[in-house]
Design goal:
heterodimer; A: 222 residues; alpha/beta; Rossmann fold; five-stranded antiparallel sheet; 7 helices; globular; B: 99 residues; mainly alpha; elongated
């Protein structure tokens, strides 16, 4: 059964500044939707609002027509990858997979480098390795929607290609919202994309749209 | 079982310092008697508030981990603080009975 995430009428004010005020986006399971925008335009804020980590002045977030209110989100509805590391560093890779009830053998088949270090605490791994584990568990956990904030940062080019494959595979059974500055990767894996500019979302379909809206190649200023 | 394991993981962020302070409170009560219970009680409340402030500040980046597993921050705090305070009260009662 397909699920639909609809985000509308979000108003976020931080320090007296209106970050978001005219936002509309939707994401259906089976698809990935990209969110692009310059630094400070509110991409991460928007994902935090959807995940319930930030309380906006106004919001309308619905999954399958049911409004999500307050800050609680069921993990069956949403999994959220913040842009920073979020797994307690004392945990081992094995413990993380046990907590998420995921198959670590499948992970190690895809990323054999972890065969030698899955019993080590995360604090002994590199930032890229930690990021990969975080991304993998959020992407593969059973849920309706995944919110990925900067999933391609800290990763090597080859790993990025593997992650893009993983996103393509996982979106067959869930909806995925992705925000990242590597817009080519985002456009590559997403069926739909939005650009946030001056607090408002604009649907975009190509690099030409991004250029026209001043996101790339400096065609116009904000 | 998973929920308890996750609550223990979160509690470990401040368990050592908080349990040590509870033991110090028990020792003070043991040496001075029940007459200073009010002081010890408010000392525990004050130190616990300080601990909550610092743990929230330094460990808040881990909240999405617990939230992705079904434990929002409020539930983490209410559960672990309740447990910690019950341990404190049990220690106080045992200390006063031993004295």
């Amino acid at each position: 059964m397909k699920s639909l995430l609809e985000v509308d009428s979000i108003v976020v004010e931080l320090g007296g500044r209106k970050i978001l005020h005219d936002v509309y986006l939707k994401n259906e399971s089976g698809t990935a939707t990209g969110i692009l925008g310059r630094n400070g335009t509110g991409k991460s804020c928007l994902l935090q609002v959807i995940s319930g980590g930030l309380s906006p002045s106004q919001q309308s977030i619905k999954i399958d027509g049911v409004a999500l209110s307050g800050s609680y989100r069921s993990p069956k509805d949403l999994q959220y990858l913040p842009q920073h590391h979020f797994i307690p560093t004392a945990l081992t890779t094995k413990a993380v997979f046990r907590d998420f009830r995921l198959d670590i053998a499948a992970f190690m088949r895809e990323f054999p480098a972890f065969e030698t270090c899955y019993r080590q605490p995360l604090k002994q791994l590199s930032s890229g390795e930690r990021r990969l584990i975080e991304l993998y568990v959020v992407l593969t956990a059973p849920t309706k929607f995944c919110l990925l904030d900067e999933p391609f940062s800290m990763l090597a080019p080859k790993t990025i290609e593997q992650i893009k494959q993983l996103i393509r595979r996982e979106k067959s059974n869930k909806g995925i919202l992705v925000t990242d500055h590597s817009y080519r990767h985002v456009l590559d894996v997403c069926e739909h994309a939005y650009l946030i500019r001056e607090g408002k979302t604009y649907p975009v379909t190509s690099e030409e749209d991004l250029e026209a809206l001043g996101y790339i190649r400096g065609a116009s200023s904000d | 079982m998973r929920t308890i394991r996750l609550l223990l993981l979160f509690y470990q962020f401040y368990a050592y310092i908080s349990l040590s302070l509870s033991l110090i409170c028990a020792y003070i009560l043991y040496t001075n008697g029940a007459g200073i219970f009010a002081i010890v009680f408010w000392f525990k409340i004050f130190t616990l508030t300080t601990i909550v402030y610092f743990v929230h500040h330094y460990k808040r980046k881990t909240y999405p981990y617990f939230k992705n597993l079904g434990l929002p921050p409020r539930r983490l705090w209410v559960s672990t603080l309740t447990f910690d305070f019950v341990v404190f009260l049990v220690l106080v009662i045992l200390t006063l009975q031993l004295r």
